[in-house]
Amino acid sequence: MAVLFTSDSHFGDHRVLNIGRRPFASVAEMDEALLANWNAAVGPGDEVWHLGDVARRAVDVPALLGRLNGTKHLLRGNNDPPGTAAAAGWASVRDYHEMDLDGVRLVLCHYPFRSWNGQGKGALDLHGHSHGKLRALPRQFDVGVDARGYRPVALAELLAR
User: Fold this and answer.
1) Do the Cβ atoms of 121 and 105 come closer than 8 Å?
2) Residues 97-132: pLDDT tens digits?
3) What contacts 161, CB < 8 A, 6 or more positions away?
4) CATH at 100
5) Distances (CA, A) of 83 to 2, 33, 56, 60
6) Which end of the chain has fewer surrounding CB within 10 Å, N or C?
7) Could you read off the pLDDT of 132-146 as tens digits, one per residue?
8) How far is Cα 159 from Cα 161, in angstroms, rounded to an integer?
9) CA gyration radius, the chain
10) pTM of the full structure
11) What total of structural domains would you count in the chain?
């Protein structure tokens, strides 16, 4: 089982085509690419932490979750309405989470932190929200799709860069 991270998919949201300068001709093309990339990176037995801003419309989220591989956890973002969090298909929903993975302490939240718990002791901050446009601090990683090839990413890949 692999553990992967992603954020800011914004399924169905035409605004990110311009704001994020995504290389897709339409929302439908973007959505299909995001779905295909997710399922190419994530196996059925894998775990994915989605760090917020899932989709434009909460009503679309249950069907999306049904099409995406893996066990899915949500850390709510600023564009996630209550219906997104309430959608069937999430293994857990929260705003903030800390975990140990492969001997590394991770602090997960949609928003990037200026400082975070354990920062001075080697903990990493994984976040979204900034669409690859924020200059990272040491041990801080934007896991949003715009910064990570439009797909979920494993910790080993983050650390290899």
Assistant:
1) yes
2) 999 999 999 999 999 999 999 999 999 999 999 999
3) none
4) 3.60.21.10
5) 28, 24, 11, 10
6) C
7) 999 989 999 999 999
8) 6
9) 15
10) 0.96
11) 1
